[in-house]
Write the structure tokens for this entry.
Amino acid sequence: MKHRPLPSKHSRRYGIERRDFLRYLAAVSAIPHIPAICAAEASLNKSPKFSSNPFTLGVASGDPEPDGVVIWTRLAPKPLEAGGGMTPEAVETRWEVAEDEAFTKVVKSGTAPAMPQLGHSVHVEVNGLEPHRWYFYRFHAGEESSPVGRTRTTPQRKVLAERLRFAFTSCQHYETGYYDGYRHMQEEDLDLVVHLGDYIYEGAAGNNRLRKHIGKECESLAEYRIRYAQYRSDDHLQNAHRLFPWLVTWDDHEFDNNYADLVSEEEGISPEVFLARRMDAYQAYYEFMPLRRRSFPQGPNMRLYRSCNYGRLASFHVLDTRQYRTDQPNGDHQKPMNENALDPKATILGAKQENWLSAGLLQSSSTWNILAQQVMMAPLNRGEVDNPLYSMDQWPGYEANRRRLLRFFHERNIPNPIVLTGDIHINWVNDLQLNFQDPKSPLVGTEFVGTSMSSSGDGGKVIEEYDRAWKQNDFVKWHNTNRGYVSCDVTQMNWTSHYRVTPFVSKPGSPIETKASFLVESGKPGAQKIAG
């Protein structure tokens, strides 16, 4: 990538005047206050009539805390049409949370506006719940009712929970495969699901695809909304949202492939046009995810990094390695780790997020400290022994930042760092060394890289480049090219990761296999393969 100069403040060279763009940002920043204003003015339609079921996209929950959780829905009788089949008016929804699925013991209820400005999505931050227990929830609009969702609060911060079970996945390209992994995930006894990015793919419909995208490459808010609706219309994905609370973060395809902060992958894109598109992409992401108001986008900016504590057993530090990174200092693709990649000013987290992460790790009293993030942290040599090459879009492209974080793990004695990674469409298990060039260097953490849910189509074949990388990088304990997800079972003493794979995604109905399982003992970084 190349840095491009900013146009002058009155430039129309890119089809948009900067003053108009700034006014647009100011208008968008007021959106979080619109529901309260609307409710105060009693301008809601409290008795809407729908042409068909408005809850076609189901329900979801996320960002759990000891006393509450976010519950979500979106009114869309015709989800694959612009506007979702809704008229441009605010609609009152009613919500309920109960201790039982039959709703005989309703513990919380209320109303929330479904606003056209937010695509008639609804985000309710329910509080006053009991810690560490399951609840059921649903929505009503007019005479229609949503499916019943199930969610779970986290343990109180001071409590050492006996166990945490969760699954993580990423990269669910709708066009290249079916989501049977989510069908099998629903059969597990999980407390939580973590999604590490590439929830949608923004590109135009491809040729000879299994399931075709609607429309061209997403550039407008309406186009992003339809793309999310198409993905969320998948029954397996929708039901996984319905049955478990989710923690989500994005990577690049939620907006634009391999972007870095203000820099597009494509040449000739101005910052104004780029940020206008990013603003639409970020708003659509918020509209479709069970996120709290703290994550509401402010124009083209959206703070997604945050923490989620599971008592004193585990702390999730959810990262954003895309929005704040500097342009890849050594360009994109695979390159040697030269002085550009070693640039101390290059950052994949940005200074503010890195400082937030450092403070969170230092203050953590949890047994396990989990970094839920996007791109591979281990410096995987994908070239030859005598001609090493590294992915410049991953952490090794920002090597000074990577080394600084691992040194922080080591010098500050951070308890049990576990890095969860997506992006690469391959399963990996990596030991994180303080100095990867020294085989005797101490281990400071463990990285579990999950494959894609469906992206890249059927897996399972030997890929020469990755097979070579596995053999010549001693810190790699295992790799596999199938699709699927990783299921994690966490106790005070042990962390176990089970690599669940679907042998095919090119047609519905794939079975599930546990391809391998790995153990990390508390206080002893590094993964051990479990026999069997």
About this structure: The mean pLDDT is 92.
